[in-house]
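Let's practice the habit of predicting before peeking. Look at the sequence and jot down your guess about where helices and strands might fall. Then scroll down.
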Amino acid sequence: MTLTTASRPDFLASVDPTGIPLDRLRALQLERLQWTVRHAYDNVALYRRKFEEAGVHPDHILTLDDIRLLPFTTKADLRETYPFGMFAVPMADVRRIHASSGTTGRPTVVGYTAGDLDRWADLVARSLSAAGIRPGDRVHNAYGYGLFTGGLGAHAGIERLGATVIPMSGGQTARQAQLIQDFEPDAILCTPSYLLTIADALEAAGVDPRSTSLKVAVLGAEPWTNEMRREIERRLDLVAVDIYGLSEVMGPGVASESALTKDGPHVWEDHFLPETIDGDTGAPVADGELGELVFTSLTKEAFPVIRYRTRDLTRLRPGTAFPAMRRIEKITGRNDDMIILRGVNLFPTQIEEIVMGIETLTPHFVLELRREGRMDAMTVRIERHPALEREVCEAAGVVLRQRIKVLIGTSVDVRVEEPGVLPRSEGKYKRVYDLR
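Done guessing? Here is the structure:
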């Protein structure tokens, strides 16, 4: 049967994320988890099959810890059921469809009911408020519109907050820079790498990026380090906060950082139940230990997700700005982003962290993997600083190579390139090029 709206918990029950008591939150999570598990079991064939194979039934979920009885959901499951096999409501009740790019296989397709869209807007508005954006502010939205969840998800949240949205989308970087000067927005939403590209465009137009009206940047959709945050804040004279989300779970607004603490995104746990697991065994890891992030949705109607493996690596920490809601450390790597180079595991964000510590280098770099005989090799191609002599930047490249060897434990080649040679981000930045 299809569960009706009347049979679900009150998904719009007012929750104050700054003050909800922990016992009230846990009771709400259990009520919503039980509904979600039943909803998925009754209405999604893949979940019903996976539950039966695992010997588990919705009636077995009596406590929050019982979530560990349930099987994981992976991106492969979503691709197996392409396009609409994971939908838990009739297509007549689906009001919007989004999808991933599908660059490594079939795209993952997600759907939303009118209620889903309403809650999504609320959660993005909550996230933007935590970042310091207020009703009446002008917000330049440079996330891509279309099937990608970023643009439209952010757009709805800006409007729900009562702010004014400037729906620029991605690309047309020179025009982005011009409109920032002309429209004088208070805040900007985009990927962190693209904000640096916009800063480059402002400088190319003879404008000091620190002189704009921008006060807040809400950045996400790709891993970025605190070193990158400091560079962005220094270069544009604003506050940069992290927003986290992924299409399979909802889109932007699953978790967000407070501008007051800037200590990692708080998960909106009244709508999403987070876990961390050992990526190899699937066993749970304790809060505070590094693990792969797993999410179960608690209020999604069209596309419920049960224990979805995000592949993102992080730690769950106690809440600070929102005490009942746990934080995740900034995502600085993914299981599937890890590079194994001559037996050493490394992530692109580790290189970024080292690059940001060398003032004579720019943050514009890519990693190229190739095969040399029987061994893998990696070249860091990085642009020199346009205001410095090439000899100075070449010397900085030597320092970069030495620090990678010392701090990561593997040898790489470093090639210092001329300014503008490497591709610029207009959305998610591609750091790794595998030429093997």
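How did you do? Residues 1-6 have pLDDT under 50 and may be disordered.
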